[in-house]
Design goal:
The structure is a homodimer of 156-residue chains. Chain A is mainly alpha-helical and 156 residues long. Chain A has a domain at 46-123: Winged helix-like DNA-binding domain superfamily/Winged helix DNA-binding domain (Arc Repressor Mutant, subunit A, Orthogonal Bundle), CATH 1.10.10. Chain A is built from six helices and three strands, in the order ααβααββαα. Chain A has helices at 7-41, 45-56, 63-70, 74-86, 108-128, 134-145; strands at 61-62, 90-94, 102-106. Chain A has a three-stranded antiparallel beta sheet with strand order 1-3-2. In chain A, a hairpin with a 7-residue loop joins strand 2 (90-94) and strand 3. Chain A is globular and about 60 Å long. At the A-B interface, helix 1, helix 5 and helix 6 of A face helix 1, helix 5 and helix 6 of B. Chain A binds a DNA duplex (30 and 30 nucleotides) through residues 34, 38, 44-46, 62-64, 72-80, 83, 98-102. Chains A, B: InterPro entries: HTH_MarR-typ, Tscrpt_reg_MarR-type_CS, WH-like_DNA-bd_sf, WH_DNA-bd_sf.
Chain lengths: 156, 156
Amino acid sequence: MTASLAKPETLSKERLRLWLRMLRVTRQVEAALREKLRVEFDSTLPRFDVMAALFREREGLKMNELSKRLRVSNGNVTGIVDRLAEDGLVERIAIEGDRRATLVRLTADGRDAFTTMAAAHEGWVDALLDGVSAEDAHHIGELLHRLPADTGEQRQ
Amino acid sequence: MTASLAKPETLSKERLRLWLRMLRVTRQVEAALREKLRVEFDSTLPRFDVMAALFREREGLKMNELSKRLRVSNGNVTGIVDRLAEDGLVERIAIEGDRRATLVRLTADGRDAFTTMAAAHEGWVDALLDGVSAEDAHHIGELLHRLPADTGEQRQ
DNA sequence: AGTAGATAGTTCAAGCTTAAAATTTCAAGC
DNA sequence: GCTTGAAATTTTAAGCTTGAACTATCTACT
């Protein structure tokens, strides 16, 4: 009748349950945001992410840096930037002294579009996380902060 | 010098920050799991999800129910099940009395494969969420539980 | 100069994902 | 029996995503 037998197994199960719950919540919110972007702005989450990264760097970013910052593959960014460029929202600019690299930058149109979308986006998130007080948000954020066995670099 | 002016704006910003953090953590864990499944079992997360759902229902599920349970589109499930069937891990079974629907079920091979993968999967999650105590897990889980302005049905 | 290796980016094949259209079958009402 | 609409599934077009192969350029060393 050793009372402490139950614990060890419980921990990994408890973590698994947490993971599944996080996954569910994240996917639900993500789906809602994707839907909103599609309907309201005929756009997508990946496009929004790229534009957000570029918005913070007025000077522009190299494809390189962009893919590192978004943590997606190189080839992935190529496609998204291609389509954004087709729509005139970003532009590729040659770099002096290195013909391998290109700088990607928001156009004026791109900045306008992003500003509009970002405001809407914040509102959607606010609505989706309606039940969360500032304290909860802060608290969960803290717990989450040091979560995934930090694989090294990261930028907020 | 009204001291309470800062609050209202902060809440939506705080929620936004929480959302971005959740997104980052989720993606990081997801990427790690995907990588593991690919390298160790030459498989993918969507395949794992489908097999997990079928594992819980020994009798099998209709395409219909499968896509509802996983919260992905109908057509999506078609493709994943196609590929799983090619590999002999699931089978489609005609339903008596309704020629529109088909039942999808794990094969014996499928059950074996899933049992192995599920054990590994739990271990990976356990390792990835290393910093999380049972109490933290429980706590975050609680906070998350009622999170996304519940859009209706859901099954753990 | 010449070459070896690193770096930046694109292309490719495969799979995932969605929304919308199309197909097939079923159920009900006339 | 016919038809009309609902239900289950697949197909399609477009985009996202990855890892791997490929191209072009640059850097450094000899």
